[in-house]
């Protein structure tokens, strides 16, 4: 957590009132919640009443996909299509797959190009042919694995022209690249506190006031009856502090990270035989902190082990609950073979990363890749 | 030494890892994910490679303060153990998948990876002892506790791999002692039930598993004269020496019990006969590995032969010729089926191992 967020969390951890209570303690907590709501709204270009607090990005995505699907289908039984990109995070992909398996939805996966960018012609054709039967379209703002920034405004415009609600999972983007909800034209947008230096366990779905959402959690009717549950005043205050910090420092931090990113990529590609940067090239089309590289022939478990034992905390793809590495659906959608999709590593650069860390990485990486390639 | 401790999630491997840590080694815990069905939870004491086992292994590593990783060996396990298990049964042999797993997964794939990643040894929770002699020869011996001894399923690893392995539980007096040590160390798995049966046959029904995978293949059961005495749903499901579950209504002429004496999967015929037909006095093994360079056995050498995990031994004399191993037994042995692992001992010491060849009756 960034210092300002930790301080905000500590400062409000002693608040005892339930923000929904009418007594003085409740009012004090409510003021903290709404103050945080206003700050988060301002940071992402939304109106405060558009912010629905959740327990994180996953819940925000679930609420968007299920809530939009159920509401739209209830209003018009023909609307059963869920259109998402093939490279969505599992928090979008799996609720969509579940709705297809259990609730009569038809799931449409939009193809991406070799850089992981969604095919706009496919979006156009899909909406031109099936707008009346589509419940929602969801395309992430930026990809969590390869860092590709998606053409969100273009997709939003196409969706709006066909009267289809558009959700974007902006968990990776908020605080790292400029995000303006109102300007984007999206109907709904997910964000997560811990991705901007805030606490784990807090997120929000930003959703336009005119869009109806079916709730996923029922109970006390908090958050416009859409998301019941007692509100976490201290967590929200910390989130607002982190997001303010991230947005205030966005320009300088992005420039700093892009320099480190270029430096890291240049050294990796120059040092490791056959290493290849995945996704788009460096520039505005890629998240500034993302370095995702394919090391063909390297065993993913071995690579992970070798780097971790040298103090390099990097990730390769998504892990299931048993901790088993799985080939990335993102890279497979980009046209990689299952083997190459496995032989990848993501090095995330953030506010604590320095050029000394890149040196440390380069001290460990050549041997790690060399050894990981010895494994058949 | 840099030691890779294989952590299954059970009590044995956890205590073995703890002992390697105590011995002053630099230990890293690795859980091998062997199942392709990664969401599988354990049912009762059966099954392995589940999420729960992985969690138990991780918690043991936490307690020991060692790094922990999960390595995905499910493709290797499927290709080298499960598929082999099925094709061996389909060919009328009786494989031991645990021997195969030790040979190809634990002491081949895992050892090779450990070696490539800079480890000096792999420690597991197997019950066996390694004694290093003054001349450098590493002798593989039965564990101190004969009930838990696993030298039979380990013999297949051969001398080179013995040199890279550690079995810290070999001198434990009993499983109870291992559990007590686990409890004293605060390991949460101290009371976890032992796993039995074949880990990839989750419900323990091997015959049903074979039937699902290999399909129903009805055929005849004949006696030694060739007369049809019963029927079966697939010859592959029968094992030489088997007495139960034959479903033969008519008793033998002399009233003596009948046993499976031959399984011919090519003709899909199971042959039964009296116990005397099962007795063999010679064992012929292929693909031999020899762990006793100081005992070359080029001439008949006294030994004890064992063909089953936890089976009894029969004395005899062994001769090693290239990759073939033959044992002349002092007294007949019964229930000998092709595909089984033959392990030859001298006292508690493992001399060598081979796979029993198909024989003619």
Q: Which keywords apply here?
A:
heterodimer; A: alpha/beta; Aspartate Aminotransferase, domain 2; Aspartate Aminotransferase, domain 1; 2 domains; 7-stranded mixed beta sheet; 3-stranded antiparallel beta sheet; 13 helices; 43% helix; 12% strand; B: 361 residues; Rossmann fold; SH3 type barrels; 6-stranded antiparallel beta barrel; 5-stranded parallel beta sheet; 8 helices; globular
CATH homologous superfamily designation of the largest domain in chain A: Type I PLP-dependent aspartate aminotransferase-like (Major domain)
In spatial order, strands of the major sheet of chain B run: 12-15-14-13-16-17
Shape descriptor of chain B: globular
Category from helices, strands and their pairing of chain B = alpha/beta
Strand share of the residues of chain A? 5-15%
Helix content of chain B: 25-40%
Order of helices and strands of chain A: HHEHEHEHEHEHEEHHEEHHHEH
Strand percentage of chain B: 25-35%
- On the 0 to 100 scale, the average pLDDT of chain B is 89
Describe the structure.
The complex is a heterodimer of chains A (376) and B (361). With 376 residues, chain A is α/β, with parallel strands linked by helices. Chain A folds into two domains: 246 residues, Type I PLP-dependent aspartate aminotransferase-like (Major domain) (Aspartate Aminotransferase, domain 2, 3-Layer(aba) Sandwich); 122 residues, Aspartate Aminotransferase, domain 1 (Alpha-Beta Complex). In chain A, the strands form two sheets. A seven-stranded mixed beta sheet of chain A has the order 1-7-6-5-4-2-3, with helices on both faces. In chain A, strands 8-9-10 form a three-stranded antiparallel beta sheet. In chain A, helix 7 links the parallel strand 5 and strand 6. With 361 residues, chain B is of the alpha/beta class. In chain B, the strands form four sheets. Chain B has a six-stranded antiparallel β-barrel with strand order 12-15-14-13-16-17. Chain B has a five-stranded parallel beta sheet with strand order 3-2-1-4-7, sandwiched between helices. The radius of gyration of chain B is 22 Å and the shape is globular. Chains A and B meet through helix 10 of A and strand 2, helix 2, strand 3 and helix 4 of B.
